[in-house]
Write a structure and sequence with these properties.
six-stranded mixed sheet; 445 residues; globular; 17% strand; six-stranded parallel sheet; 16 helices; Rossmann fold; glycerate kinase, domain 1; alpha/beta
């Protein structure tokens, strides 16, 4: 009779998991390098047209500082003036461009002030001037300029309602565009007749330019009616501040102008260029996984839906690989990219969509040997925490049980951060300077 395989010792299991964690981190770092906003921006800059009188630089997003550094490297003293806004803690020192910080994902007064300054700069530009706009993930929240008479507080309340109910980024930005004086192509309206070129780093599934950062320089194909339907779908109409509801009703009834649409003459002197995306990062991650000896399989660059439900897919794949060797035998790396959502409990804890996904995956891969799952945000932040995401392995629940942690209880309370922190299973990178959505990685040795 064949011998029953001996159970690996806890020491050898720990050694394997340490190796898996190092390799997962290396793969994630390779993905970040491919989304380097500095290099991506530098590669798309070119000499100014000879007819240019002044060069102005504006921008918003988590990668705005890195992108602006590349602009300063290329144009230097040719920059007449510039203003960018980035997330608190993401600013880098600049010489010719003013760098401001504001709150994300819920906008604040600092963001309103930055938006006002950027709007004024665009209004000052003439027909012989060139405006270079830098847009990356987070720009929508960082450029809050509420349409009158909506206040910032009322827009904050609306944003929080949408975030809490699990609205997608497409839905969130559609509503934002119709409560703003800058989004949905309206920044292009302020810039006209100056020449305007926008470099865009995508953090949205499918890279739709009108959704990234709420498309401040892109023709808007969505309408007030679309925004109203989204709020109706999530049963938020009755919860909206009165001014927000009134503004949207006016838009639906055509009592106020729509956002600029395709074909409008304000877009005649404008170019929008996509310079980086989640797909490019995942291809780099694939290459690194192959270099480390894994067979890399890319599932999707458009994973969305509820984080805990998406985690079940990865757990099912892990169990199938162990049971049958399908879709590939170990060592294998299953990769995906996208952006999931979380429906928050009434009394939720602390965490983010990636930590929540990792916690759900830990439950699904419990006891599987030589198996690791990582979910992490390429911007280095996951929800209102200092972590990019978290690692989950086949021993996560066993280690948690030793400190009397019930994984399912933490998942129910959306308290993934406090679950993973004492286990030392958080991935903490600090701000990365880029943002091309999230990366999901399943490694089986």
């Amino acid at each position: 009779m064949p011998k029953t395989p001996s159970k690996p010792s806890s020491r050898s299991a720990s050694s394997t998991e340490s190796q898996l964690r190092r390799e997962a981190t290396a793969i994630f770092r390779a993905a970040l390098a491919a989304a380097d906003p500095y290099q991506a921006t530098l590669a798309h800059l070119k000499p100014l047209p000879k007819s240019t009188k002044n060069l102005y630089v504006i921008g918003a997003g988590k990668a705005a500082s890195s992108m602006a550094r590349a602009v300063e490297k290329f144009y230097g003293k040719q920059i007449h003036s510039g203003i960018i806004v980035t997330k608190q803690g993401h600013a880098l020192p600049l010489k010719h461009i003013k760098c401001l910080e504001a709150s994300h994902p819920v906008p604040d007064e600092a963001g309103v002030d930055a938006a006002r300054q950027i709007a004024q700069l665009c209004l000052n530009a003439g027909k012989d001037d060139f405006i270079l706009c830098l847009i990356s993930g987070g720009a929508s929240a960082l450029l809050p300029f509420p349409a009158q008479p909506i206040t910032l507080e009322e827009k904050q309340r609306t944003t929080k309602l949408l975030l809490a109910c699990g609205a997608t980024i497409h839905e969130l930005n559609c509503v934002r565009k119709h409560l703003s004086a800058l989004k949905g192509g309206q920044l292009a309206h302020l810039s006209f007749p100056a020449r305007l070129e926008t470099l865009i780093l995508s953090d949205v599934i499918g890279d739709p330019l009108d959704v990234i950062g709420s498309g401040p320089t892109v023709p808007d194909t969505s309408t007030f009616a679309d925004a109203w339907q989204i709020l109706h779908k999530h049963r938020l109409i009755a919860k909206l501040p009165a001014s927000v509801r009134h503004h949207l009703e006016q838009g639906v009834n055509h009592a106020i102008p729509e956002t600029p649409k395709p074909g409008d003459r304000i877009f005649s002197k404008l170019i929008n260029i996509l310079i980086g995306s989640n797909r490019l990062s995942l291809h780099a991650a694939q290459s690194k996984a192959k270099e480390l000896g894994y067979k890399p399989i890319l599932l999707s660059t458009s994973l969305d839906g509820e984080a805990s439900e998406a985690a079940k897919t990865f757990a099912a794949i892990a169990r199938e690989i162990h049971a049958s060797g399908n879709p590939a035998k170990a060592p294998v790396a299953i990769l995906a990219g996208g952006e999931t959502t979380v429906n928050l409990a009434a009394h939720h804890g602390l965490g983010g969509r990636n930590q929540e996904m990792a916690l759900a995956a830990a439950i699904g891969i419990e006891t599987l040997p030589s198996t690791l799952f990582l979910a992490a945000g390429t911007d280095g932040t996951d929800g209102p925490t200092d972590a990019a995401g978290a690692f989950a392995t086949g021993t996560t629940l066993a280690r948690a049980n030793k400190i009397d942690f019930d994984a399912r209880d933490f998942l129910t309370r959306n308290d993934s951060y406090h679950f993973f922190k004492p286990l030392n299973d958080l991935l903490i990178t600090g701000p990365t300077g880029t943002n091309v959505m999230d990366l999901y990685l399943l490694l089986i040795r």
